[in-house]
Amino acid sequence: MTLSPNRVEIDLSALAHNLDQVKKLVGTGTRIMGIVKSDAYGHGAVPVSRRLEQNGIDCLGVSHLHEALELRGNGIRAPVIILSGIHTREQAHEVIDKRLTPVIYDVASARILAEECVGTGKTVNIHLKVDTGMGRLGVADSDLGPFIRQIKALKALRIEGFMSHLSSADEPTGDYTEGQIRKFRKAIELGRSMGLALPLNNLANSAGIIAHRSAHFDLVRPGIVLYGGLPSPEFRNPPVLRPVMTFKGRILQIRDLPDHTPVSYSRTYYTEGRRKIAVLSAGYANGLLRSLSNRGKVLIGNRKVNIVGRVCMNLVMADISDIDNVGPGSEAVFLGLQGGETINGDHMARWGNTISYEVFCSIGQRNPREYIQ
């Protein structure tokens, strides 16, 4: 039981449903890496990983070593890929000891890992990161041949596959993405011509999984779709997904305000006529985007009502002038289902001019979470 008026509910059965949708999209010949970085996008890395493991996930993806160690420390046994790699001997030791798979994109960190392997007599699986057009982590295609030769010389490292990342797979036109796919395919051809087996090449994020079948290769990396969100609010032809996260608060007070009364900071909203305004229990400290001010909505009394005035640190106001069956203590749903109405992460992202990734991370990491099996 929580004493907070706000709570986040995580529906793990919805998570399992969304994983099944990914399995249908990629078929039986492609493996799946569940992305659980950033505390599983605010959903809770350990319980999410545990459920994904129970439902047959092939491996898990985290950003940094400490996230991988949290999973291992809580009994998660599935292969864990560290997407941002490692850089120190201490990190290399943990990778070897905990049977983790780092992504490699520079020779220096590869050598540190190989030297630590020699000291223990063990070998480590790695993925090589190729930059096909993201302009972020990775090895340029012009440098890939010499890079492969240097990594191959480190006998303690086993290259499982190449990895790259799609920058624009959520755009309506796919020309740039198709160019990235072609570059990635050429990188794999080069690697195999140099004697690498490369059984686990992976490129497709959620958008690539849905919109670009040729990007699937051997392994895909769903993130946002596992949690019931879309790669962008306007994404076309999505699979049938179920939202995993619900965020609820309470009405603290109802105010009857006369005409032309300002509400909240900077007087960005004035009542037009007499209005009934509900003061709600959450604000931007609880993950509600400040950009929802005068733009977002909330579910109260089984209806969508407008957020009015600036979102405050711990409070937000809503116009409930047309609702009679609520009072202090009544439920307010910021994200989720109430009656026959729904607000999902993509709705909130559209109102707040962002993406559902930010919505989930902001809300999920700042409120007590309850898990529904």
**Integer-rounded radius of gyration:** 24 Å
Mean pLDDT, rounded to whole units? 96
Number of helices: 11
Query: Which geometry do the CA atoms define?
Result: elongated
Name the CATH superfamily classification of the largest domain: Alanine racemase
CATH class of the largest domain: Alpha Beta
Q: Let me know the number of strands.
A: 17
- Total domain units: 2
What is the terminal-to-terminal distance?
A: 16 Å
CATH architecture grouping of the largest domain: Alpha-Beta Barrel
Poorly predicted runs are none
**Percent helix among the residues?**
25-40%
Approximate strand percentage: 15-25%
Largest β-sheet summary: 8 strands, parallel
Secondary structural class: alpha/beta
- Please write the string of helix (H) and strand (E) elements: EHEHHEHEHEHEEHEHHEEEEEEEEHHE
CATH topology-level fold name of the largest domain: TIM Barrel
Short description:
The chain is α/β, with parallel strands linked by helices.
List keywords for this structure.
TIM Barrel, 373 residues, elongated, 24% strand, six-stranded antiparallel β-barrel, single chain, Lyase, Ornithine Decarboxylase, Chain A, domain 1, eight-stranded parallel β-sheet
How would you characterize the overall build of this protein?
- The protein contains eleven helices and 17 strands.
- The chain has 373 residues and is an alpha/beta fold.
- The protein has two domains: 216 residues, Alanine racemase (TIM Barrel), CATH 3.20.20.10; 128 residues, Lyase, Ornithine Decarboxylase, Chain A, domain 1 (Beta Barrel), CATH 2.40.37.
- Strands 2, 3, 4, 5, 6, 7, 8 and 9 form an eight-stranded parallel beta sheet that branches. The chain has a six-stranded antiparallel beta barrel with strand order 10-11-14-13-12-15.
- α1 crosses α3.
- It is elongated.
- The two termini are 16 Å apart.
- 46% of the residues are buried.
